[in-house]
Amino acid sequence: MTIEYSSTFSKRGLLIGASLLTAEYLAYSLFYSYANPDIWENAIPHKYILYITLLMGTAVTFYVVNKEENQKELADNLNKFDDFKSNILLGLGLSIFSTGTFILINILKAKLFNSTVVSSFIDHNLYVSSASNWVNVINHVLYPILVTFIFQGFILNGLTKQIGFKKSSIVTSLFYGFWFGDILGGTIFSLFLNQIYWKTKNIFYPGLVTAIMNLGFILAYLIKNEIWLLKADSPDYNSEIVKGLLITIAMTPIAFKVVRQAIKIE
């Protein structure tokens, strides 16, 4: 299936994407800090970084929605949600798959570097413990939209103009996986998001799917908090390897399906 590239949304896409990625890193860190007040300092430079981040986000948002061609594209594609139920199920399977690969990859890195503590697990546990915080809920809704605009809206579109969709999808997905610390699960999840965006040209579609997944995990955290807490200290984290393997193996067929679909897209 060949889809002609005609998107105008990515004008100056790579530059905007790089700028947003910087702002996103600051915004996510600060949201995370607000959700966990014990590591938050309401002092210089934290509070001024927050103000600068909000200013950057407002400026970029104004730039995007103020362009007539961008308004038209967003309006034309806003209601395109092809195969929504099927994609939600695929997204759920990939989210679970990514949980397994996240565990395995971070334990592997800890062993390779002879680390006694998996810091990513500690961050994850703090996030799980603060799942009921309203800031976390808002973050889980807004954050995927921002990430979608960065990776699918700007970076993917910007690269597609240069090297074509299939190559840009692979490059973007690898960067996505690296950025979120899960080069396997994160990369495949990004391939999936790229596919549903490319087929519908609806920039909000992948963001909505991710937001639903994130809210589902928050609900799971609230229902059975202890299941999601990971053992971060060596040698205790060895028991997490079994959990990671079982989850990854169970969801591997879904991951293969997404990869096959990505290969077929022209």
**What is the assembly state of the chains in this entry?**
single chain
What shape does the CA trace take?
Answer: globular
Summed up, the domain count is 1
SSE order, as H and E? HHHHHHHHHHH
Number of strands: 0
> Rg from C-alpha positions?
19 Å
**In terms of per-residue confidence, which ranges show pLDDT below 50 for 5 or more consecutive residues?**
1-8, 39-47
Question: Mean pLDDT across all residues, rounded?
Answer: 78
- Judged by helices, strands and strand pairing, the structural class is mainly alpha
**Percent helix:** over 70%
N-C termini distance:
6 Å
- Beta-strand portion reads under 5%
Biggest pleated-sheet summary? none
Number of helices: 11
List keywords for this structure.
266 residues; mainly alpha; 11 helices; 77% helix; globular; disordered N terminus
Secondary structure: elements and pairs:
Elements: H1 13-35, H2 46-66, H3 68-77, H4 84-112, H5 119-129, H6 134-163, H7 165-179, H8 185-200, H9 204-223, H10 225-228, H11 238-264
Helix pairs in contact: 1-2, 1-6, 4-8, 4-9, 4-11, 6-7, 6-9, 7-8, 8-9, 8-11
